[in-house]
Amino acid sequence: MAQKFMTTNNQLIDVLDRKDARIGILGLGYVGLPLMLRYAEVGYPVLGFDIDLAKVDQLNAGQSYIEHISADSIQAARAKGFSATTDFSRARECDALILCVPTPLNKYREPDLSYVLDTTEAIVPHLRPGQIVSLESTTWPGTTDEELKPRLERSGLTIGQDLFLVFSPEREDPGNPNYSTRTIPKVLGGLTPACTRVGQALYGQVIDQVVTLSSTRAAEMTKLLENIHRAVNIGLVNELKIVCDRMDIDIHEVIRAAATKPFGFTPYYPGPGLGGHCIPIDPFYLTWKAREYGLSTRFIELAGEVNANMPQWVVSKVADALNDRGKALKGAKILVLGIAYKKNVDDRRESPSLELMELLQAKGAEISYSDPHVPRFLKMRRHDFDLESVPLTPETLAAADCVLLATDHDRFDYELIKRHAPLIVDTRGRYQEPAENIVQA
Q1: Would you tell me which CATH number, out of the four given (3.40.50.720, 2.60.120.280, 3.40.50.300, 2.40.160.60), belongs to the domain 2-214?
Q2: What span, in angstroms and rounded, lies between the C-alpha atoms of 340 and 359?
Q3: How many CA atoms lie within 13 A of 154 on its CB side?
Q4: Cα(370)–Cα(408) distance, rounded to whole angstroms?
Q5: If you average pLDDT over residues 396-412, what whole number do you get?
Q6: Exposure string (b/e) for 155-168, b if CB count within 10 Å is 16 or more?
Q7: Within 13 A of 379's CA, how many CA atoms are on the CB side?
Q8: What is the predicted pLDDT for the residue at 318?
Q9: By the 8 A CB rule, do 375 and 309 touch?
Q10: 329 partner at 20 to 30 Å CA-CA among 100, 146, 240, 404?
């Protein structure tokens, strides 16, 4: 048995080191697609898996459905042998299987592992000796050994001998020009030391720095810490924004001043709420798991409560601003600027803009939006608006009772907006100089 372990382990590492290993990417979205491109760029043969046939067809036609990923890069990967499929039985062809599927919350704010577990179940019948499975989806500590390990072992393979299992959380930051898949250090924890060694071989050829940890649980907790750190600090500054508003102090001026201190302070910025695939979700994975140990994560939950209430607070500021101008929120024409969760991307996952639109619509406002990165609203799991992006012209701006700046894309003409909008409610602090038609929220 010991000889079998060494042979399988070394053979797989050798295949990975020689770039002869076929890499399977399961989930071809904002995480899986950049990872596919990196493996293809280095020279690995890559097979992509997704349940969405439309995405698979687009990729096989050399097209991209993510704004910051060009069609040229997809075509370059295709030229190097990349293809996509909905046939999960082809997992047997791959030496490495990397899971990059969503881990959202359900309506009770509890972890929804259905995508991870369904994907795992789909590949189990097609596993063979000499493969590595890596989970990149953010989740609670214990998921890899408690949920994936027993399912994978139903294949009859032994983890650490025939099959290798690691957790290596994704750290993508869509649209960030300063960091790429290659340059963001990769955290990695294996279920056994042999798993960790194979994991190092899997990522070492494509990522500049691989940081190995003692366990999958430590790696899972690392990802949660990274995003809980941000969620808590954003919650703090959002709460301070409300305090400063009552005191007639500009929170953005205060942050800029505090940031001049060269030590002991890191600037975080308030907004209309949290967005994206990580920060609004990850803290709840830990709070949920902590209850199993009889623990209450009060600090984290308080920050989550503050951040979750920000859209309601912004809507109240819109209502007050309209009321000061003799207008009611009901029947008002509200033009929302930016529906992506952060500036300069097309990613709408968990965007606070969408909740703002629903809240305003529920109160009787007439909603439109403008977003150069999202020309038409495509239906999402929890949101659906039959809308297209409105061009920003003097006429469209003047026709709105209120322009709500929710996501401050650089492509917006802020001087044009200021000149023609009768009322601007700015949730991002983009307008630093006070003006009669600008209200900070």
Answers
A1: 3.40.50.720
A2: 17
A3: 11
A4: 11
A5: 98
A6: bebbbbbbbbbbbb
A7: 1
A8: 98
A9: no
A10: 240
Which comes out higher in pLDDT, residue 2 or 108?
A: 108
Say whether pLDDT at 233 is over 70: yes
Domain residue ranges of the chain, discontinuous segments joined by +: 2-214, 248-440
What is the domain class of 248-440 according to CATH?
Answer: alpha beta
| Catalytic (active site) residue 278 | yes
46-50, 332-336, 381-385: which range is least confident on average?
A: 381-385
Q: How far apart are CA 348 and CA 113, in angstroms?
A: 21
Confidence category of residue 172, pLDDT binned at 50, 70, 90: confident
User: Is 248-440 the same fold as 2-214?
Assistant: yes
Distances (CA, A) of 55 to 27, 60, 266, 267, 405: 10, 9, 39, 38, 31
Q: Are 119 and 127 in contact (CB under 8 A)?
A: no
Strand positions, DSSP E, 160-281: 163-167, 186-190, 210-212
Q: Does pLDDT of 173 surpass 80?
A: yes
Whether the CA torsion 227, 230, 232, 238 is positive or negative: it is negative
Give CA separation, 280 vs 156, 186, 347, 349, 351, in Å.
Answer: 38, 22, 14, 10, 9
Contact present, 348 and 339 (Cβ < 8 Å): yes
- Whether residue 7 is predicted with pLDDT greater than 70 in this model: the reply is no
CA 93 to chain centre: 29
Where does the pLDDT of residue 2 fall: very low under 50, low under 70, confident under 90, or very high at 90 and above?
very low
Nearest to 333 by CA among 396, 416, 406, 389: 396
Q: What is the pTM of this model?
A: 0.91
The strand pairing partners of 133, in sequence order, are: 97, 165
Read off φ and ψ for residue 46, nearest 5 degrees. Answer: -125, 135
The β-bridge relationship of strands 186-190 and 163-167 is: antiparallel
Average pLDDT over the chain reads: 94
Eight-state DSSP code of residue 179: -
pLDDT at 106: 82
Tokens at residue 396, please? 């469209």
Residue 175's pLDDT band (boundaries 50, 70, 90)? confident
